[in-house]
User: Fold these one by one.
Assistant:
Number 1:
Amino acid sequence: MLKDESIGVVHNCTPNNLHYEINKACLEHGKHILSEKPLCLDAERARRLVVLAEKNKLQTAVNYCYRYYPSVQEAAMKIEKRYLGKGPYRTRFIPSRLAKLITRLQLETGPLLFREI
């Protein structure tokens, strides 16, 4: 699959502990990735994937199913009103204020557990 040039995007739906290696391999082979959450299990590996994607001019995204939860909507509002600071926030594929918050927090603190804000 990684060598198949007709495949441009990979949706990684594997168990969490496999995400990093699979996402890395996809990026190394020129594939955009949509990964189920989490992108990987620690912030350092997430940083490595971001660098690799930017180096290869590839897009990455993490699928979150929490987008419409009330607490997440509140977090998105707080981002929009800059209650959480100016940023910068990162997002790929997902034009969502939530993705920006989650990605920022994951890069700073590692994998997230959702709670009321």
Number 2:
Amino acid sequence: MYAILVDLDGTIINSWRKLLKLTQAEAATKLGISRRSVELYESGTRGDSAREVAIPRAIELACAALAAGIENYAGPERHPTSSCLTA
């Protein structure tokens, strides 16, 4: 399922939302954005112009997390023996 989430575009956002059986409003709530933003990401352009709407990396990552069943994330677990997580 992760392969479809690489380089998201509006078509993929729409497919992701439908795969999870979410309305635009529900997807917006889960992503912490407005329903209008979901609509813009799905259409790929702003209604008032032909300007392309870029999907932020944070939204891409949030979509991937939700697709993987991660609803909340409190950060990495800290292990005293892990050198990359110690100060």
Number 3:
Amino acid sequence: MINNQYASDKTTIANEFCRYFSNLGKIYASAIPPTDISAPTYFSKRAPRTLFFNPVNISEILNIINNLKSKKKNLKHRHIDGINN
């Protein structure tokens, strides 16, 4: 519902989602009381474990999938691209 009316137009719904979520930061930020403590003070401890993903491409993914071993011995292994071994 938008302004107490049901909306079915996709553009109207998308615009309302955009408006709502783009204002959340302002709304929550205004609820935080002022402080003399600087933001970096809160981030002084480093995370003991971090995770980073490198970008991949479709060829890398297909290569990994195609090299997986089948757990079913009675099925002929087929490559994900449809080409048999």
